[in-house]
Amino acid sequence: MRKAQIFIKNFLILTTTSILINVLGLLFNTYITNLVGTECLGIFQLIMSVYTFAITLASSGIGLAATRIVSEELACNNKYNAKKAAKKCVFYSFIVGVLSCILIILLSKTIATVWLHGKISYIAICFLGASLPFVALSGSINGYFNAIRKASKNAVSQIIEQIAKIIISTLLISLVMPKGITYACISLVIGVCASEVFSFLYVFICYLIEIRKEKNIAKDIDTNITKRILNISVPIAIASYIRSGLSTLKHILIPIRLEKSGVSCEIAISEYGMINGVAMPLILFPSVFINSFSSLLIPEFSRYYATNDTKKIKSIISRIFKTSSIFSICMTFVFFMYSNDICILMYGSDKIATYVKILSPLLFIIYLDTIVDSILKGLNEQLSVMKCNILDLFVSISFIYFLLPVFGAYGYIVVIYISELLNGFISIKKLLSLTKVKFNYILWVLEPIFAGIITYQTLRLINLFIYNQVITLIISILSFIAIYLFYLYLMSCITKKDIKL
């Protein structure tokens, strides 16, 4: 099978999986929001910010090392070294995962009382800590599967993880809901941790089967695998610890500074929950396509980097930029135009629609930045990505500290804009400078925006209403996308070459 066909096949697998997972996640998020309220969701988001930091400790860049080194060795047809690198990455991830587990459990009481405002029992943090060895192992194994182009393994593990989380969390919440928000949050935490274990069991079994397939591989020259793993993972780990620590501090600081604007702790956490737990996941839902695509770019660009194929790198980046721009601008118009209808349909209120509408213009830079970061990692520029993220967090924390007490929730919106624009601008500039690709503002930005505007005006002339609100919304969105793409085709922004596989 041609490489392009394998890439497309894996993209379709990951995209289909991501759509399923995100639909389930969005429905579950809606259910939880309507059941326990935005305050509980806000507390859970705070817990997850701590968990993200813990996962960073446990993973320590080893998953990326697995993807990079295995991809590079396979590009040079060194199957023995690829297999050896995978085994070493799994072993190192287990050691780091266990150490992270011990550390988090020892600090659980401090985390619960100081970082989480005493809103949750330290037992929940202990559960999170106990899941870290499984998370670390899954990360390195998934990195290996990405490298060997077997996305279906990662896809199935994600489905298992999401379904297990929803079933376990829903069951536990139904049992403890009368006891209050604290027990509901613990139920959500247990659901997350249990789902990580189920996901790990699946990928580990697949890994054992895969690694034993080729027993009689000829031994190639050992290019010091351990040193290469450390060269990639250690700098990434250090930068990740700083970045994730700052990110956790940022999320913990938000409710504290919101309180300074004159609202109670409960309202502050509720507003945080509405923005981070409801509005942002909603507008980021279409990123399932971007995320699936991005995860496959790291091993692909690692191969191009290993073979020094600069012409291919420049050609693919140009096509990726145009496709991503067209997609993100389309989604911006969709959320801006239909945010009220979407929020009323999902949450029974248009209160969150204001946040969705305000945040939607950011989709262009958010989606593009996601892809750019993956390309940079594939081109051995992962430290540049980390440095950019760390700078972004320093700036964000500074603005959170000063803006939120004055402007409240809308001050946080301003911080999100500053953060995403700064991060995206630096990353894109770095990639363009590195690859000598010229950013085509007319083709990649102005024409898609113009197509979106005239599509909007076209639909205003059509009074589209079907007897059912849901059907009306779906047909309206699909009509916008179809007309938008048609206008782009008329303007030659989309050509037959772009849609040719």
Task: Describe this structure in a few short sentences.
By secondary structure, the chain is an all-alpha fold. It has 19 helices and no strands.
Description:
With 501 residues, this protein is mainly α. It contains 19 helices and no strands. α3 runs antiparallel to α5, α15 packs antiparallel against α16 and α17 crosses α18. The longest helix has 57 residues. It is globular and about 65 Å long. It starts with a helix and ends with a helix.
Low-pLDDT ranges:
none
Mean pLDDT across the residues is 81
Please give the alpha-carbon distance between the first and last residues.
13 Å
**Binned strand content:** under 5%
C-alpha-based Rg, rounded:
23 Å
Main sheet makeup: none
Total count of strands: 0
What is the H/E order? HHHHHHHHHHHHHHHHHHH
User: Helix count?
Assistant: 19
Helical fraction: over 70%
Question: Helix- and strand-based class?
Answer: mainly alpha
Overall, the morphology is globular
Record the SSE blueprint.
Elements: H1 3-59, H2 62-75, H3 79-106, H4 108-115, H5 122-130, H6 132-147, H7 151-176, H8 181-211, H9 225-259, H10 265-283, H11 287-307, H12 310-347, H13 353-359, H14 363-378, H15 382-407, H16 409-435, H17 441-460, H18 469-490, H19 496-499
Helix pairs in contact: 1-3, 1-6, 1-7, 1-8, 1-9, 1-10, 1-11, 2-3, 2-6, 2-9, 2-11, 3-5, 3-6, 4-5, 5-8, 6-8, 7-8, 9-10, 9-15, 10-13, 11-12, 11-14, 12-13, 12-14, 12-17, 12-18, 14-15, 14-16, 15-16, 17-18
